[in-house]
Amino acid sequence: MTIRSRNSNSSSSIPLNSAAEPGGSRSERRSGLHLVGLCSFAFAQPIFDLLGRHGEFFVSRNASFAEITGLTLGLIALPPLLAVALLWGARWISPRFERTLDRALVAALVAVIMLPPLLRTAALPEAASVVMAIVVGAAVAAMYARFAGIGVAFRALAIAPLIFATLFLARGDIRKLVFPSGEAETSEVAVSGNVPIVLVVFDELPLASLLAADGSIDPLRYPAFAKFAAASTWYPGVSAVSSRTNLAIPAILTGRYPPLQRRLPIRADHPDNLFSLLGDAYQLNVSETQTLLQPGSDQTAQRRSDTLGLVTDVAVLYAHMLSPSALRESLPAISDAWGGFGDEMAVAGETSARAELKRRRVHKSIRAATSVAAFERFIHPIGPLRHDNPRVLHFLHIALPHGDWQLLADGRSYLPTQRYGFVDGRWLDTPWWSTDAHRRHLLQLAYTDRLLGRLLERLHTTGVYDPALVILTSDHGASFWPGDSFRKPAKLEHPEDLLSVPLFIKLPHQRDAAVEDRFAESVDLLPTIADAVGATIPWTTDGCSLLQTGCPPRATRRLYIETLYRVPQLMHFERDVVRRDATLRRKLELFGSDNRTSGLIHAGFGRRS
């Protein structure tokens, strides 16, 4: 049916159906409203879902209210603004180009929405998943061009960005960071002693890595650890209570086992801790790597990240979600250190020779130097004790010898830095991969030993060492067996590699070595510190002071892991599991126990720089 003009003899007519205007009227299409919801499903929703389940991403970089909300607004606003701008720009070229670009944007966004769930589908090969995502995107774009109702449905989704942003900011972990309920107060606890405290927690350091053939600390390869062990008390029977840093560090600092509910490693979720206990009586020099447990702390200057780093790391995470495994290998690696993923992106797109030189500088100046820079910031304030008040607490959690492994014993960095032969948290069955990773771990541990030597020298020269309570330990271990998981005990044949960690305690004015071969867990550290300095803990702890002999017996060793949904789960192991020596024997067979760290480097291991 047509309507003819009364004022013209022309037979021109106006069609009443709108089939010529795909997805709605031309003005509606030009508005780009239909792209807003699609962009939010393609970009904002998957990132919000990931980061909403991993609040540690923001905790590890002490992200501010402005950074988190700015990232949220950017994710919901920038992609649709860019898409709409492209559509409006195409209008000035030609209507045909505008329609073509419009359909192409719809096809691309639908394909991006479909790709992550298809890649996670085990029933489909990855190549088939990519093809299917493209086919689905093209099919939806074709229907959008043909049926006006599709465009109406897409425009109805324009409310999605506000819904996604609201749900993200209201999510438990994010809400605590964006809308904190209040700062934890320090405890008004009387302290009877004047004992300085130095507590250093290394990351991902199994005890077996330090041992020589006779079961002692290897004095040739790790002289600083051996020197400290020769004047302190070693507790070889201690075990970590979690294989995850975000659970292990709060357990050390609170004296409590991790709760079986989701908690962030922040002061709001762990108000009773070492810093709140001694904060009124002690001057605090605290360097936290992946936690924020110090009351009233402002450690922004100590973080490796900035707003640009936050954005680049989110971009790397998103690229991993969209990429098949073959492409993910070429992307910057993602580690559980939750940051610094995008450092290598700075060199993308350069010529190979120039990129190689620049990449080496990037690794040296940014990635490899991150933990070293944290160490320098920690060691700098250590000075002579005040005669009127020697109470000072120096706490350092350093992300060494934690992988990615990239440091030689002398501190030089090398390429590559990624873990290879490592799939879904486990090593491949071919022994070469786990052996190479073990070798690189031991090399980085040798450099960690060098840093420890510098710390001990600083404590000696400033007069802090002798009167201080000095404690060295690790948050958890790691495993390097072929076919085994790296840090998931449920899939591990050698759980002792995760459980058994070093613990050395030097009491004030102690000069002789001692070995206390007793059952202990990392929750015993806080009660031991309180006992040594004469403080009474005003909350109930699960640990017991290692300076006391009447601790209640524990039937098993506890290890808390995280499930797929980041909820802690408890596993029990026999008390003598830490006595197993299979890992030590394998390490000695592969690498020996001497000072020839150059023997840990072999052809094909990597390029030194």
Descriptive report:
The protein contains 20 helices and 15 strands. The protein has 609 residues and is of the alpha/beta class. It folds into two domains: 153 residues, no CATH class; 282 residues, Alkaline Phosphatase, subunit A. A seven-stranded mixed β-sheet has the order 4-5-1-9-10-2-11, sandwiched between helices. Strands 3-12 form a two-stranded parallel sheet. Strands 6-15 form a two-stranded antiparallel sheet. Helix 2 packs parallel to helix 8. The longest helix has 31 residues. The protein is elongated. The protein starts with 25 loop residues before the first helix and ends with a strand. The N terminus and C terminus are likely disordered.
SSE topology sketch:
Blueprint: H1 26-31, H2 33-53, H3 56-59, H4 65-91, H5 95-119, H6 126-146, H7 148-156, H8 160-170, H9 172-178, E1 197-202, H10 223-229, E2 233-234, E3 238-239, H11 245-254, H12 274-278, E4 283-287, H13 307-322, H14 325-328, H15 352-367, H16 369-379, E5 392-397, E6 414-415, E7 422-423, E8 426-427, H17 431-461, E9 469-474, H18 496-499, E10 503-506, E11 514-515, E12 520-521, H19 525-533, E13 557-562, E14 568-573, H20 582-591, E15 607-608
Parallel strand pairs: 1-5, 1-9, 2-11, 3-12, 4-5
Antiparallel strand pairs: 2-10, 6-15, 7-8, 9-10, 13-14
Helix pairs in contact: 2-4, 2-5, 2-7, 2-8, 4-5, 4-8, 5-6, 6-7, 10-17
Q: Name the CATH superfamily classification of the largest domain.
A: Alkaline Phosphatase, subunit A
Q: How many runs of DSSP E, i.e. beta strands?
A: 15
Q: Treating each run of at least 4 consecutive H or I residues as one helix, how many helices?
A: 20
Please tell me the CATH architecture of the largest domain by its name.
3-Layer(aba) Sandwich
Helix residue percentage? 40-55%
